[in-house]
Amino acid sequence: MRKLEIYKRLILIFMSSICIALQMGIYAVFWYGYYSERMYLKFYFKGHLLMLFVYVVLLFFFSQMYGGMRIGYLRAGEVMFSQVFATVCVNAITYLQMCLMVRGFLDIAPMFYMTLSEGAVIVLWTLGSSAIYKRIFSPRNLLLVYGDRPAEDILHKFGTRKDKYQVNKSIHISIGAEEICREIEAAYDGVVLWDIPAEIRNKIYKFCFGMGIRVYIMPKIPDILIKGADQLHLFDTPILLTREYVLSFEQRMAKRIIDFVCAFILCLITSPIMLLTAIAIKLYDRGPVLYKQIRCTRDMKEFYILKFRSMKVDAEKDGVARLAAKHDDRITPVGRFIRMVRIDELPQLFNILKGEMTFIGPRPERPEIIEQYMKDMPEFLFRTKVKAGLAGYAQVYGKYNTTPYDKLKLDLFYIENYSIWLDIKLMLLTLKILFKPDSTEGVDSSQTTALKNESEHYDREGMDEGRH
After folding, report:
1. Distances from the Cα of 88 to the Cαs of 80, 84, 226, 295, in angstroms?
2. Distance between CA atoms of 386 and 382, rounded to whole angstroms?
3. What is the pLDDT of residue 185?
4. Contact 160, 139 (CB under 8 A)
5. For 16-41, what is each residue's pLDDT tens digit?
6. Average pLDDT in the chain
7. Are strands 302-308 and 290-296 parallel, antiparallel or unpaired?
8. Contacts 24+ apart (CB under 8 A), 28-32
9. CB–CB of 109/156 below 8 Å?
10. Which residues contact residue 258 at a Cβ distance below 8 angstroms, ignoring those fewer than 6 apart?
11. Potential cystine with 330: which of 1, 279, 311, 439 (Cβ 3.0-4.6 Å)?
12. What separation in angstroms does the CA of 191 have from each of 124, 156, 175, 211?
């Protein structure tokens, strides 16, 4: 098994290198054949190599950032989109770099044709690499071990990636840890542990670890909190320290500077877009342009969040707080468009300038919705330990209709692993999700803000976590 993983890694590195090399070749043709001749300074061999090196470094960085090289891990379409998006970003930076070198604007047509050529190569490379990967590496044969929570949800999620995983059997923990371990040893490449008590989970996990069998664990809240613990070496016994989360003075200062500078620049850049949006909303139904709503930020402090109005004026005339649903008839045609391209969020740049919000952090919720959540998830209060954000971990790695409990866990991953670099990374990844329609889907009719369908489970799980 270990040798197979080494071969897989080598094959993936080789396939990624092919894509980078092909794109570098296309750039070399356009650079040497067109752009280098328009530079003020004459470029020699080393100068050409330097330009190619800078391009490859940028391409590698953005490809890794957006997942453009993750053949086998992501779906083929996702890999294709990610690499094309990374290439567009790199080419935009490269074009601006060359414009600065000549102190003026160059003809953008060659850069456009270069991007199209690279896009065609990426499509062919993705299809070919994905086909090779599927032929060489078959889906992992998995066993699902579940507890009292129904297994249909996680089975559905694994079922969307049949190219990578094949859950061949599901067993309940009632048969006992020893019988489960014998079942695992018989014929499985990996195990999925879905919502089972810590005692039996630990037995199965230690057995799999000793046998070299992969384990896919859906973490509970304490698991995430421990992940962000500090390691202490006071004695000859390992100690993990968890404590109330606070940003250091240096982190708060750096975060505030980044927020203010980026928000100010984006306000200037997007001001024409905001003006046109305001005009369109006003012309459609003569109603107010902005929508103000009370939300909660750090320590449950309330503030008025600003958004371009995307719904009818009387969308909540009954006074009931509701998330937008799929095909929600309260959303206006103008509102549907600005929600799709996220223009409705632009006024929140002023909330960031005022210090009420930050660029990256858990999305601010309404007090009444927080109250609903906390009836079933008291841990929801944990996410208010940091300032609310325009975008966050849950928005990058989840969807609009991701369950509230999963969103909470994603937000806690961010809080427990905070760094300035993580903020910068999430800012860059947010650019990508702006073009992903599934991240703006509304909630299903069966999914409610109060978690009616799953409240019993969350209440029980909260008690389980307290015991274990």
Report:
1. 12, 6, 39, 36
2. 9
3. 87
4. no
5. 999 999 999 999 999 999 999 888 88
6. 87
7. antiparallel
8. 28/52, 30/110, 30/111, 30/113, 30/114, 31/55
9. no
10. 359, 420, 423, 424
11. 311
12. 34, 16, 16, 12
Closest to 188 (Cα-Cα) out of 166, 210, 161: 166
pLDDT digit string (tens) for 396-433?
A: 988 766 788 889 999 999 998 899 999 999 999 998 88
C-alpha closest to that of 246 among 385, 150, 359, 413: 385
**Cα gap 156→138, rounded to integer Å:** 19
Distance from chain centroid for Cα 397: 3
The residue written with tokens 């046998």 in the block is: 211
Sign of the CA dihedral 395, 400, 404, 406?
A: negative
pLDDT of res. 321 = 54
pLDDT single digits (tens) 3-12: 667 788 899 9
Question: DSSP readout, 302-344?
Answer: EEEEEEE--B-TTTTTT----PPBTT-TTB-HHHHHHHHTTGG
**What DSSP state is assigned to residue 288?**
-
CA distances, 30 to each of 26, 95, 116, 119 (Å) = 7, 12, 12, 15
Dihedral sign computed on CA atoms, order 75, 433, 113, 22: negative
Q: The tokens of 416 are what?
A: 């427990």
Rounded Cα distance between 390 and 133, Å, is 38
Q: Count CA atoms closer than 13 A to 293's CA, side-chain side.
A: 19
The rounded distance, in Å, linking the Cα atoms of 72 and 134 is 8
pLDDT band at 111 (very low <50, low <70, confident <90, very high): very high
- For 167-185, how does the pLDDT look when each residue is reduced to its tens digit (9 = 90+)? 999 999 999 999 999 999 8
Q: Are 400 and 342 in contact (CB under 8 A)?
A: no
191 forms bridges with which residues in the sheet? 143, 215
- Torsion, Cα 341 346 347 350, to 10 degrees, reads 170
Determine the Cα–Cα distance for residues 213 and 207; give it in Å rounded to an integer: 9
Residue with tokens 């300032």: 387
Q: Are 119 and 92 in contact (CB under 8 A)?
A: no
Q: Cβ(399)–Cβ(441) under 8 Å?
A: yes
Q: What is the DSSP letter of 399?
A: -
| Strand positions, DSSP E, 130-238 | 140-146, 165-172, 190-194, 214-217, 230-232
Q: DSSP label at 365?
A: B
Interatomic CA distance for residues 143 and 215, integer angstroms: 10
Decide: 298 and 387 in contact? Cβ < 8 Å: yes
Classify 242 as helix, strand or coil. Answer: coil
Angle made by CA atoms 416, 422, 427, in degrees to the nearest 5: 130
